Amino acid sequence: MIRDFVEQLKKLGPSPLRHKEQEKGEDPPEEEASPQEEQKPPPTGIEIPKDSFVGRLVYSDFLWRCLGCYLCHTRCPTNAVNSEFMKPLRGLIPKDEADLYCAHGAVPLMIARMLTSPALKPNRMGWVPSDVKIAEKGEILYFVGCAPYYDAEFNDLPLGETQIAEATIRILNKLGIEPVVLPEERCCGHDLLWTGDYENFEKLAKMNVDMIKKAGATTVITTCPECYRTIKIDYAELFGDLDFEVIHLSEFLTKMLDEGKLQFTNTLNLKVTYHDPCRLGRHLGVYDPPRKLITSIPGVELVEMGRIRENSACCGVSSWLLCGEEAKKMQLDRLREAKNTGAAKLVTGCHKCRIHFICTQNEKVPEEFEDVKELEVVELTQLVAEALGIKLKPPTVS
Ligand code: SF4
Ligand code: SF4
Ligand code: SF4
After folding, report:
1. How far is the centre of ligand 1, averaged over its atoms, from the C-alpha of 92 (Å)?
2. Is the pLDDT of residue 35 over 70?
3. Which of 149, 216, 223, 232 is deepest in the core (most CB within 10 A)?
4. What is the CATH number of domain 105-256?
5. Contact (Cβ atoms closer than 8 angstroms) between residue 183 and residue 140
6. In a 3-state reduction of DSSP, which class is residue 86?
7. Is the pLDDT score of 21 beyond 70?
């Protein structure tokens, strides 16, 4: 469907897209789109004049502002899924131009692209504490994602992203599970896919799926909603049946709770509110498991904000794109909404939302927002670990 849309655009007006083959007088190769090819990149060799109809679209902020948050999908009476069209359209411009729309000098995208090289052997295990139990092969695999990278990348913020990964392994160990952690795990490719870089996305996807299968995993647990969506929906679209189940940690732990295998030992005496990340909520419908976990912790009261579940507000940045005034306003509005509930902690099911919120709390904000800095923003895994009496090292700032 999305490929068709791009094809339609190509037919608009006096040929705004020019194939190199056409310039040479040759017909561009025609292809039948198979389900696997739906994820494939737009044809190569396309030049888009910036002053053409399509050029004005793909080179404007307009195209890059979409967060893929799916809020419009919940409102659209015809289920038009407009944000899905952004991916192939964004892929129509050269990568170096696309990088200009990415925050932090596009470093997050560059790291992901570097990881497509099989020759690159990342030190993925450097953060793993020596006293946790992990396995090389086994049925349950923990897909760590980029959290440990972000502690290095944002070392001026009090993030403690690695805590989330460490907490996950310690929680699983408490349940008697020694999860597989892949020593050469690659970025899931979410951010590359949403910036239209299908070619590199596919490379990462293939490497990860091969490694997961080789490890013998039948269940892949993620804490990051973006990894979750990417493996569960986008990898499956690319490769068909994956032969393994993908599950968010909140769903897995809720199952353990229901089976009586997970019991919270600490009483926290705390009021918290919960932010539904758009990838976990609107994309995958996971609204109840995080709430069930939170409300099962002794002494924890969940006070809801006005915008929750399918009406939740996005944190304002996706795929590290276009972080500016609008994103900051969205973050401050959300922090205000959370603060107004009277909660001491804002719990989110997404470590990236957490980074963006903490970033804004550490900036100069208008006076009327000063009090939102008092909120502690935590990822759900950190709260669960606290309720299980798991001690984690406080984040350091350098
Ligand atoms: S930002 Fe969200 S609501 Fe706006 S167009 Fe994109 S997906 Fe839709
Ligand atoms: S960081 Fe969280 S809220 Fe923001 S786009 Fe990603 S999942 Fe959605
Ligand atoms: S909110 Fe902060 S961490 Fe997030 S993209 Fe913007 S500047 Fe970067």
Report:
1. 20
2. no
3. 223
4. 3.40.50
5. no
6. helix
7. no
CA 279 to CA 355: how far, in whole Å? Answer: 15
Whether the Cβ atoms of residue 197 and residue 160 lie closer than 8 Å to each other = no
Q: Does the CB atom of residue 321 touch ligand 1 within 6 A?
A: no
Full DSSP string of 267-319: ---EEEEEE--TTTTTTT---HHHHHHHHHSTTEEE---SS-GGGPPP-S-ST
The residue assigned the tokens 């690659």 is 186
> From CA 104, how far away is CA 127, in angstroms rounded?
23
Q: Is 171 strand, coil or helix?
A: helix
Tell me: the pLDDT tens digits for 339-386?
A: 999 999 999 999 999 999 999 999 999 999 999 999 999 999 999 999
* Domain chopping of the chain, boundaries: 2-100, 105-256, 265-387
Same fold flag, 105-256 and 265-387: yes
What is this model's ipTM? 0.83
CA distance linking residue 11 with residue 9, whole number of Å: 5
Strands of 245-248's sheet, edge to edge?
140-143, 219-222, 245-248
Per-residue b/e over 216-227, b at no fewer than 16 CB within 10 Å?
A: ebebbbbbbbbb
What's the 6 CA to ligand 3 centre distance in angstroms? 31
Cα-to-centroid distance, 284 and ligand 1 (Å): 16
Query: 184 versus 23: which is more confidently predicted?
Result: 184
Topology given in CATH for the domain delimited by 265-387: Rossmann fold (3.40.50)
Beta-carbon contacts of residue 118 (< 8 Å; ≥ 6 apart)? 207
pLDDT in tens, 284-334: 999 999 999 999 999 999 999 999 999 999 999 999 998 999 999 999 999
Pocket test for ligand 3, best of 64, 67, 101, 104 (most atoms within 8 A of CB): 104
